[in-house]
Fold this protein.
Amino acid sequence: MDFSFSEEQGLLRKTVRQFVDKEIMPFIREWDEKQIFEANILTRLADLGLMGVCIPEQYGGSGMDYNSLAIVCEELERGDTAFRTAVSVHTGLNSMTLLQWGTEEQKQKYLTPQAKGEKVGAFGLTEPNAGSDVAAMQTTAVKQGDYYILNGSKTWISLCDVADHFLVFAYTDKSKKHHGISAFIVERQWEGFSSKAIKGKLGIRAGNTGEIFFDNVRIPKENLVGQEGEGFKIAMSALDNGRFTVAAGACGTIMASLEASLKYCHERSTFGKEIGKHQLVQQMIAKMEAGLQQSRLLVFRAGWLKNQGKRNTRETSLAKWQACDYAYEAANDAVQIHGAYGFSNEYPVERYLRNAKAPVIYEGTREIHTVMQAEYVLGYREDKPLSNTLPAWPFEEAKETVK
Ligand SMILES: Cc1cc2nc3c(=O)[nH]c(=O)nc-3n(C[C@H](O)[C@H](O)[C@H](O)COP(=O)(O)OP(=O)(O)OC[C@H]3O[C@@H](n4cnc5c(N)ncnc54)[C@H](O)[C@@H]3O)c2cc1C
């Protein structure tokens, strides 16, 4: 077991932290208040090679390991959940899925510009009547010659107005239930595609989330990802990567909550002493520290498994569940430590609390992960090997260079 980070990973953390401090922190309160998604941040992340950090260089990425993606997510969410969410859907849910399941042609055409950050990817699974219960979806893709005709809609889609490419799930054969769902790459510019942002969200107000609509969208058959009927399996394996980034990001929320709380503990005095000297305040600080350290261990274990090319659905689910619960508690306690001041946006902690609620809901609600973990332990759930796996790290091309 080796718990140390490489020099490259240390440098990566420093780079993202500096970027967040300079380019996000000074403006985030205003973006959050005005519900502005600052798309330029994605361009700047691309300049730093952070839109495809764990995608092999041969496909336009930075070729770093999967835990490097976790480092990026931690540091980004320390700034705001909106930008980590963007990286989660772009890299975790979309690009890594194309790396795992895409044809060589799809990798050249879609993955490569995404990894370079020239194009943005998103993920369309949820529908108005199908969230946790994915198979309740109603969107259909009917084969007609060399095309599939896509009809339906998706909701709560991150980057709905921003992304160029969407990984969309639809029924090609409803009678087969889970086995009748297929995955497709859909381009925004195609006729029949439209999107609309949801306003008035509780949190991630500096993020872009909303609906996407398909009105007889013609998808070339080459844009089918995997085989017909493999969509459910592909969606679940995409979530193994998305959830990993959400869990890592949750560590960023804990870091931010802790940072703000420590500062306030030293600034504020009651009953003749710093509030940090009161034991019940110390209890909240200690819980944040414990949550951060435990969550990180779970996240980096899941990343280590990804680096080995091993299946990690169980470990990633545990990391996502625990880290998001800890992050929500940490943000809640951070508001408590700030007293009434925590209740206004004069301090950032109220934003952390509002933001921290979404990750407890998306990419598998707390309840879904609780049930999954119980089922694993009880022996009701077991993961079988997948036909397509993420490449282990170091990637083959890197190994060849080392030789
Ligand atoms: C900010 C934000 C961004 C999002 N981005 C995306 C995106 O980019 N792409 C995308 O496809 N989706 C996205 N989502 C949607 C998200 O993944 C879903 O909201 C989530 O899967 C839950 O589905 P639901 O909201 O329909 O809740 P439901 O599934 O209707 O659940 C309602 C409640 O019932 C509980 N419940 C449901 N089933 C069970 C069960 N079997 N056992 C116990 N309890 C259960 C749930 O835990 C929850 O408390 C996003 C959501 C948010 C809030």
Summary: Strands lie at 121-124, 140-144, 147-158, 165-171, 181-187, 193-197, 209-220, 224-225, 269-270, 273-274. Residues 231-267 form the longest helix (37 residues).
